[in-house]
Specification:
Strand content: under 5%
Largest sheet: none
Distance between the termini: 23 Å
Number of helices: 15
Length: 337
């Protein structure tokens, strides 16, 4: 029965023991990030921004195993190795390359080291890789939520309270907070939903991600995307910038997009190329803008689709080199999917 179930939801890679649909969904999310940072049509980017980053948080929550991390110290060390060190190392390297290649910005070198300590998105105090820093903080927050709240309804209530608090903060104050703490409060809801979908509501999760619901989720995300385009011209929902528009609409669109992607990839057989991107999403997240710059320098034309395709191909050997020679830089070495 278990083997049949596994075949029905994307299967498990027999070579690595990894869950294929997880890697494919994460790889797809990485591709969406690249499209979001490309010159793709604005309306397409507005739609993708509804759910591409929330999808990352949801997947990370789905993979969280609190039974492996009963002591906070060990959990903190584990997440420093898998998230914090790669975020700081790769983010600093990318920031240095950007600055060195633009002589007029050399003075910004003075902000690189303080930026590692401050991690303030959206300015000179940011070293890049904000999402990974935010995920690191989100996981620490959620560990404590699970530690203090033993019942599912309390976990849900506290996660919702974090999101509500963050929204009120954004509306009343609207200042970006160091270490993406404001964004992490929003992300806790998506991370917690992923965890609860596996740990407490597996049967409900299976029903909500049935393949016949894909078209419905797609229609909901498309409708909400159109509403944003109509009501907020030129506006993108963006956790990075604390921009959400109508908060309930943001959450509905984000969760519909998440369920759309999960229901789609759980029905597919493993695709090795997409699994590869998912397994190396840190490298793709870190270097894709640099690769875009190199492509624009080398080619006499710009096309967002070809830019993303070429970047995905070029980042494959970069990922393999990092895995081979600098595995610490991409958080490798652990056994978690």
């Amino acid at each position: 029965m278990e083997n049949a179930s596994q075949r029905a939801v994307g299967a498990i890679n027999s070579d690595s023991g990894r869950i294929a649909w997880i890697d494919m969904a994460r790889g797809f999310a990485a591709i969406l990030v690249m499209i979001g940072h490309s010159t793709a049509p604005e309306h397409l980017r507005q739609w993708l921004y509804l759910f591409h980053i929330p999808l990352f948080f949801f997947i990370s929550g789905y993979l969280f195993r609190p039974e492996k991390h009963r002591e906070f110290r060990r959990f903190l060390v584990s997440r420093c190795r898998s998230l914090l060190i790669p975020a700081i190392f790769l983010g600093t390297i990318c920031r240095l390359i950007h600055v060195v290649l633009a002589p007029e910005t050399w003075k910004n070198l003075l902000y690189v080291i303080p930026g590692v300590l401050i991690q303030l998105r959206g300015g000179l105090w940011e070293t890049g890789m904000w999402f990974v820093i935010c995920l690191f903080v989100t996981e620490l927050l959620f560990w404590w939520i699970l530690r203090l709240m033993k019942k599912m309804w309390l976990i849900v209530a506290v996660s919702v309270a974090f999101g509500a608090f963050a929204y009120v903060y954004v509306m009343l104050i609207g200042k970006i907070v160091p270490w993406s703490l404001d964004a992490a409060c929003i992300a806790v809801g998506f991370y917690g939903a992923g965890y609860l979908g596996r740990a407490f509501c597996k049967e409900l999760f299976d029903k909500l991600t049935a393949k016949y619901l894909f078209a419905g989720y797609f229609a909901v995300t498309l409708m909400i995307g159109c509403l944003y385009i109509q009501w907020f011209p030129g506006f993108k929902t963006d956790i990075y910038s604390d921009r959400f528009g109508l908060f309930p609409l943001f959450y509905i669109g984000a969760f519909a997009g998440i369920l759309m992607c999960v229901s789609f990839f759980r029905t597919l057989p493993p695709m090795k190329w997409l699994c590869f991107i998912g397994q190396n999403s840190l490298a793709y997240f870190a270097f894709h803008t640099l690769v875009f710059d190199a492509i624009h320098f080398a080619l006499p034309f710009e096309n967002w689709a070809s830019d993303c395709l070429i970047a995905a191909l070029l980042l494959a050997p970069i990922s393999m080199l990092l895995n081979r020679f600098l595995p610490f830089a991409v958080g490798k070495g652990g056994k978690e999917n």
